[in-house]
Amino acid sequence: MLRVLACVSGGGTNLQAMIDAITQGTVRNAQIVGVICNNKNAYALERARNAGIDAICISPKEYADRETFHREFLETVNMKKPDLIVLAGFLVVLPEEMIRTYQNRIINIHPSLIPAFCGKGFYGLKVHEEALKRGVKVTGATVHFVDEGTDTGPIILQKAVAVEADDTPEALQKRVMEQAEWKLLPQAIDLIANGKVKIEDGRVWIKA
Questions:
Q1: Quick check: pTM over 0.85?
Q2: Does the annotation mark 70 as catalytic?
Q3: Among the options 70, 110, 128, 144, which is catalytic?
Q4: What is the largest CA-CA distance in the chain?
Q5: Residue 49 in contact with residue 56, Cβ under 8 Å?
Q6: Which of 188, 165, 203 is nearest to 86 (CA)?
Q7: Which of 4, 28, 94, 102 has the fewest CB atoms nearer than 10 Å to its CB?
């Protein structure tokens, strides 16, 4: 059974998609062993507790410096003994030591078709604002492994979503979530939990 630890910052819609997929059997051989959030007021914490999942808030604001926060954060992660860490809308930069320790065991969901509209400064609604400003006809979401860069790790899955002529950033964000993010993240977890994902030469290969 794959031990999954989810890290979130906001409402936790992707977390809910994970919980629902595991409950419904769409994701097999996996369990969420904990949720870490950096915002004590985030609804994601309530989602976790409603599902009987241990949830904790660890915020950088509560520590004297970033180094102390990183140490406490990593210790909390380690206590959960995760096989896979899922960044489901987590807006905190991970400690480098954590990325090294859990190499190829951390995945992230990003609301664009990487390498478009990704990297430093591209998160949340900003991604969709830039997509509309650029006038793209197709956008989407990407699940990728996390490395030392920003949105630069090996891509696992992508799904395209059409951009409508009258889209607002909020409308586009909602469609990308519903049509891509909430489907891709559970799918990626299921593939990993069942030994279907292989990384070779910086690329991901999905086994039949």
A1: yes
A2: no
A3: 110
A4: 49
A5: no
A6: 188
A7: 28
